[in-house]
Each structure stands twice: as structure tokens, then as C-alpha cells.
Amino acid sequence: MAATGLGFHPAAFFSAHPREAGTITKQLPFRHCSHHRIRVARRTCLLRAKSSNGRPQIGASFSNSNEVLDGRATGDGPPEQGGSTVSITVVGASGDLAKKKIFPALFALFYEDCLPKHFTVFGYARSKMSDEELRNMISMTLTCRIDKRENCGDKMEQFLQRCFYQSGQYNSEDGFAELDRKLKEKEAGKLPNRLFYLSIPPNIFVDVVRSASRTASSSSGWTRFIVEKPFGRDSESSGELTRSLKMYLAEEQIFRIDHYLGKELVENLSVLRFSNLVFEPLWSRNYIRNVQLIFSEDFGTEGRGGYFDNYGIIRDIMQNHLLQILALFAMETPVSLDAEDIRNEKVKVLRSMRQLKLEDVVVGQYKGHTRGGKSFPGYADDPTVPKGSVTPTFAAAALFIDNARWDGVPFLMKAGKALHTRRAEIRVQFRRVPGNLYRRRSAAGAAGLDVDAATNELVLRVQPDEAIYLKINNKVPGLGMRLDRSDLNLLYSERYRREIPDAYERLLLDAIEGERRLFIRSDELDAAWAIFTPVLRELEEKRVAPELYPYGSRGPVGAHYLAANYNVRWGDITSDDDGSF
């Protein structure tokens, strides 16, 4: 299959699980929708039947239309009872995440004809609400932002008519049994597949999974659960959560979502590296001096400080979003695009990483600041934040991968709130040119550029204004020999006129199709927590005081000293890079 440029998305092949019983050969159709052109290949897969609680049932074999995309059964035989249907239940339907992200993402998939022909959406929460009240709530956040080829109002009304509501307690088997009854009414005559999205606090994950798996699992199709971060607070609590979930679910049913893995530039990272010969030979310690993963927000906790204080910026951003991107960046070439092959390589990277030490970490907390006549409150000014809190709202860290490819290369992470800009990017700084011909001219002041400092840099800007650009040294036009630093850039908004889909759209579609490539496996989670847990415990036991930095600044000065320890300058603060072209 040939790549068609940096925006190309390779075919994703579904994983086969060797411990499954009973084989079925299926031909899966092309899937055409505007955001995704997913070719699902002919394959042989091993399937295990599930009992009604979702646990494995050895010895039973059936046409589990695991990757049904258009309402047609995909087994060898004729469609089973008129095809299949997918029921999507958003648990925690009245929460902000559901209203702002999940329901709009489902509507966008429907608008783009990416959902199966037969589907139903249910909201489940403790709030008392009618179907019509749910629809009114959802309609407030739906937009036809993609294009106008069909009447927006008509599409919205069609989607809302497929949305229903069930009120119940999260630990109530009776509530989920009533949901099961309503689901069966909508699924009548079709093979039922069910997806549960847990848009709820992590302390009630297990209650919901226990109740739903026992009373609302599909009796013959598949049942899957999408679980939102945080996945625990450290190695111990994460392991306990995993063990508790696996009391009721098989690992294959658990889809741990990190929405950053669904972002366009992150998904394009492996395409950029593995399908362009110019980059792959350079992707090692021989040519790369350091790698920087930078995340910044230009706002504070905005009244959510009480929730944030339980986790802090390291758990909230670095241990999951940035570490997952690092693993994708640094992994070896996988055997195939199969989900398990990719995740195997990510786990190898994580297991090769050193435990993070306190001397390689800088923490900060934003304080109040007045700018332009406007006052911005500090983190400690938030009434929901406990008095005397030392929870970091900023952190920088230096990490290392002890393997042959990356030995000695610092991977610098930086994440913070209430900074001067909103940004998420990967910056790859290459080594100096050995024996550079222009060094003597630069030393004489003729070149206009310090060629030793101005090394090549590859930047992948994840958000906002998605872009890939390469910084090169270039001659300024004219009779003299004056050097300048220039950008070779791919700005997505100029090259690709179509709007980029939200990460939740991609990940929801993958979960419906059974594609696990962008979801986190339990051993990945274990390896990730092993890196960060010791330093998190030390920070909390010693109550390390964070360095204060003004709201809207570039963060603590200590972050620059940390980078300087490894002869590195943060790429996002140089004078020639203000984040725009």
C-alpha cells in the first residue's frame, strides 16, 4: 500500500488473540466516510464466545460480528436475524465530558456516515431526566462544523431521535437491568453489540463495570467498556483497579482511552517516521541530540482545583499523554500495523526507561498576577484548593531510555497550566554538523548566525494549528555570505482544507470497530507507572515546595536550569520561534 503524503493514514489491522477458541473467516467491507477511509482486510481471526456477563466462555463458537460496520453480519453465513446493531451507552451522561466531547463526537461520526446503519445511543446517570430532556441537553452542544452538504437540522434531528435515557445509581444492578430491557427493545431482531463509555470519576469505575457486566452485557454479540483516565494514582492503585476490572471483564473488553493518542499529529507520527526514508535513518542517538515534549495551557484550574489537587500536573499530563507520545516516538519498527505489534514495541520502550529521580524533576505552582489592568488569581486562591497545597501545576523532567538506539539522549518533558501560551508539540533537536565549514565565518561575525547553536530542529505541533516544520540553516539572498535560520513547513490548515476530526471521534470509531492500536494495554500502564511512582511518592512524602511562577509567564526558572544540566535549551523559548510562521 503506497503512502500518499504526510496526511496518509495506513490501514489498521485488528489483533488476533491466540487464547480464543473457535475460528471464523470473515470478509470485511471497505468503510467510506469523510474522515476515515479504513480498509479492513480479509483475515482469519480467533474468537471466543462471551457469556452474558462478558467473561470468556470456552468452547462456544459463533459469528460474533466483532467488526460489523454497516449493519451486515460479517460471518461466512447469511446475516443473523437481520444483521447487527451497536448500542452505545454513555455512563455519566449529564457530566461535562459527555456533553462537550462524547455526544458531539458521536454526532460528527453520524453526520459523516461513519457509524453503523443500526445504532442506538443511551445516556445513563443518576439525574432524573426524560428522553426529550436528554435530547434538549445534547442539542445545545451539537454543531455541523464539517461541511454543509446535507441539511444540518435534519441530520441533527435524525441523530437525536436515536438518543434515549435511563436514570439509575452507578452501583445498582436494577438500574442497569432496566437499561438492558430498553436496549433489547431497540435491538430486537438483530445481533446486539454494546459499547459502554465510562464518563465518570475513577472511584466508581468498578461499581459500574460490576453492575453493567452482570445485567447489561450482550448475550451473543460483543460488549466493550471505554475507561477514561486517571487509571489510578500510582503503581499500587493502578494495579488494584486493573485487577478489579478483570474480575468482571477480559482485557480485550477494556479500552483505556488517552485522547491525545487520537490527535492527528500523534497518529501521523509513525507515518512520518516509517514511510519517509529521509527520517528513519536519523531516528537515533547518532543524529538526535535531544527530544522535547511540551504541553502548556494558558488558563488555570478555573474552579476545578479541588479535583486537580488530588492528581497534579505530573499524573494529569506527563504520566499519560506525554509518556504515550514518547513511547510512540521512540519505539522500534513494529512487525506490522496490528494493534498488539505496535503496543508490544511501546511496552519495550517503557520498560527500558530509567525510574525518574527527584534531581531530574522541577515542579512549580502558579501565583496571582496582574497584567494589562486585569488580575489573574493564583492556584492557591481557588477556594476549592486545600490551604497550604504543594500540588504542582507545572513540572519539567528529564527522562532516559537505556537501549541501543537512545542511550544518552535526554527526553525532556514540560507541562504546565496558566502559562503564556496554549501549545502541545514534539521538538527534535539534531546534533551539530561535525567540522562545519561555516564555523570560522560565524566566529568572525560574517555569517550572522551561530551555526553551532542553530542546529536542525524538527517540530510536530499537535495543537493548536497543527503543523510539521523543519528548521534549517540557509543563506540570506544577497552578495554577501550571511546565514539565516528558516522553516520548511507543512501547515495543515493550508495543505488540507478539510477540518481535522476531534480525537474523540477517531477513538470512538476505533472502539466500535474493535481497533485497539490507540488504546492502552494493562502492561503498558504498569510500565508507565513504574517510571513515575517513586518520584511522585518522594515529592509527596517530603512535601517538596513548588517554585512559584506568575500566571501567564513561561514557568519556573528551574526548568531552564534542568535543561542546562544536559546542555539543552528549550526550543519553545528561542527568539526565532514564537509558535507561528
Account of the protein in words:
The chain has 581 residues and is an alpha/beta fold. It has helices at residues 96-111, 131-139, 152-160, 173-187, 205-215, 235-245, 264-274, 305-308, 312-330, 339-351, 439-443, 492-495, 503-513, 522-541, 558-564, and strands at 23-26, 30-32, 37-39, 43-46, 84-91, 119-125, 163-167, 191-198, 223-228, 254-257, 288-296, 361-367, 369-371, 374-376, 394-399, 411-416, 423-430, 457-463, 467-475, 483-491, 519-520, 547-550. Helix content is 28%, strand content 22%. The strands form five sheets. It has a nine-stranded mixed sheet with strand order 20-19-18-17-11-16-15-12-22, sandwiched between helices. Strand 19 (467-475) and strand 20 form a beta hairpin. Helix 4 crosses helix 5 (205-215). It is globular. Residues 52-67 have a biased composition (Polar residues).
Shape: globular
Distance between the termini: 33 Å
Largest sheet geometry:
9 strands, mixed
Could you give the count of β-strands?
22
Strand order of the largest sheet: 20-19-18-17-11-16-15-12-22
Outline the low-pLDDT stretches: 1-32, 34-81
Percent in helix:
25-40%
What would you report as the Rg, rounded to the nearest angstrom?
A: 25 Å
Would you tell me the overall average pLDDT?
Answer: 80
Class inferred from helices and paired strands: alpha/beta
Compute the number of helices.
15
Strand content: 15-25%
Domain Glucose-6-phosphate dehydrogenase C-terminal: 271-570
Protein name: Glucose-6-phosphate 1-dehydrogenase
Pathway: Carbohydrate degradation; pentose phosphate pathway; D-ribulose 5-phosphate from D-glucose 6-phosphate (oxidative stage): step 1/3
Region (Disordered): 52-84
